[in-house]
Amino acid sequence: MFPNELARQQRAKVRLAITFASAGAVVLGALAVFQEFPEPPWLWGLFAVSFVFFEWNTVEVNDKLFASPSIMVVMTAAVAFGPMSAVLGTCAMAAVALFTPEDIRQRRWFQPAVNFGQLILTAAASVVVLALILRAGSSSGEANLAVTAFASGLAAMIYGAVNYWLVLFIVRSVYGHREARPWSHMTSILLPLTGMGFLGGLLGATYLLVGAASLPLIAIVFFTGYMAFESYAKLREAQLSTLAGFIKALEAKDLYTRGHTERVAYFANMIGQAMGYNGTQLEKLRWAALIHDVGKLAVPRTVIRKKARLTDDEYEEMQAHVHHVEDLLSEVDFLRPMVEVASNHHAHFDGNGYHGSTGELGEIPSLDARILAVADSFDAMTSTRSYRVALSQGYAFSELRKHAGTQFDPNVVEVFVSVLTASGERYGSPEELTDDEARRRAEHGIGHSHAATESPHMDTNRGSGAGRG
Cα(202)–Cα(126) distance, rounded to whole angstroms? Predict the structure, then answer.
C-alpha cells in the first residue's frame, strides 16, 4: 500500500473514532438522565454478559462484515426490561462490549472506539421505537403479545438497517472501494438477523410471563442462533478455500499464470462496478474469473508452455479448456452459475468463437462472459507469457477497440478503458512493441529494456485478436 493511502486511512480512522466515540457517549449520558436503570440488576448483568460474549465471538460472513445473534439478545433484554428502562439498559450493554480480546492482544484503538459509538447508536435507534410501541400498545393478554411481536419485528429491521449502514460507512471511509468489496447475498444475512430480532422480542415476552425459569430456554435459543451464523461462515470459508486450491493447482502447472486469475478478477470487478453490479453480481463475476482457466489443468503442459506459435491441433487443444472447466467443476453446486460464465469467456460478441455447452454458435454470450472476455484478454496482452513478452497498455487498448463489435462487446471495452484510465493504474510494458516483436523476444529469451509492470490476458496464439487466454 502506498504511503499516501496509509496516511489517508490513518486520518479517516482518527476522525471516525472521535466522531463515533463522542456520539456514543452523548447518547449514553442523555439516556442516564431520562431513563431508569433496569431492575433487578442481575438480569441486566446476564443479558450484558450474553451480549459481550456474542460480540467477542462474531463470525465473518462477508468481506469485513461480521455477524452474531447480538440483535436477539438486545430485543429480548429490551422487552424484559420494560419501556422505562429498555433503551438505557440495552445501550449500557452495548457500551460494555467496547473491547474484544483481539483488540487487547493487538492493542487496537480504532475498532473499540467506533464499535462503542455504532453499537450504542444502533441499539438506541431500534429500541426507542420498540419502547414507544410497547408503551402505546395494549397492556395485557393476547393483544399485548401481538404488540410485542410487531414492535420487536420492526425494531429488529431498524437495528439491522442502522447497523448495516453504519458499518458500511465506516468500512468504506477507511478502506475505500478497492480494499473492501461490496457485500454479497445480503438477503441471506439480513433476513435471519431480522428474524432473530423478532424471536428475541418473543423471548422477552416469555420471560415476563414465565419468569427466571425461562432463562435456560432463552440461552439455548441464543446459542442456536450463533451456530447458524457460524455454519454460514464456515461454509463460505470452505468455498473460498476451494477456489484458492484450484488457482494454486493451475499456477503450479503454468508459472506464467501466477497472479493472472486474481488480476482478471480485479479487472472484471472494476468493470462490473462501473456498470452498476451489486455485491452478489460482483461476487459471481469475480468467482467466474477465478475459475475461468481451471480447465487448463486438463491441457498438456507442453502446449501451455510452448514458446512458438501453436499448430492448429494445439490451438484446438488449448481452446478445449473452456469445456474442461465444465467437466471439472459442473458438479460443484455453488460454482455452477460461475462455470456457465467461465465456459463462455472465449465466445465472441458476434456469436463466433468458442462456446461452452450452455452456448451455441451465433449466440451472444451473457454480459458476465463478455466482461470476463475483455478482462481476460487485456491481461493476456499486458502480461509476459511463455510465447510473448508483455505488450503496452496503449497497445492492449487499441486491440480491444479494434476487435470491438466482433470479438468484444463495444460498451464493455469503452467502460473498461474509461475506468482503468481514470484509476491512474498502468499495466504492461513501458515500451511500445508490436505483437510480432513481442513474440520474437520471447522466443529468443529477450526481455524488456526496462522493468514492466506485470498485468492481465487475451485470446489467440496464432495471429491477430486478443491473446492465448
Answer: 16
| Cα distance between residue 353 and residue 408, in whole Å | 11
On whether the CB atoms of residues 159 and 74 are closer than 8 A, the answer is: yes
User: For the chain, which residues make up each domain, given as ranges?
Assistant: 3-237, 254-443
Cell 454458435 belongs to residue: 361
Cell of 441: 523476444
Q: Alpha-carbon distance 143 to 147, whole Å?
A: 6
Segment 359-387 shows an average pLDDT of: 85
Share of the chain above pLDDT 70, in %: 78
Residue 183 has what DSSP assignment? P
CB half-sphere exposure, 299, CA atoms < 13 A: 26
With H, G, I as helix, E, B as strand and everything else as coil, classify residue 60: strand
Q: Is the pLDDT of residue 306 over 80?
A: no
Contact in structure between 389 and 448 (CB atoms under 8 Å): yes
Task: Say which residue, 355 or 47, is predicted with more confidence.
Answer: 47
What's the chain's length in residues? 469
Q: Which residues contact 205 (CB under 8 A, 6 or more apart)?
A: 79, 144, 145, 148, 149
The superfamily in CATH containing domain 254-443 is: Hypothetical protein af1432 (1.10.3210.10)
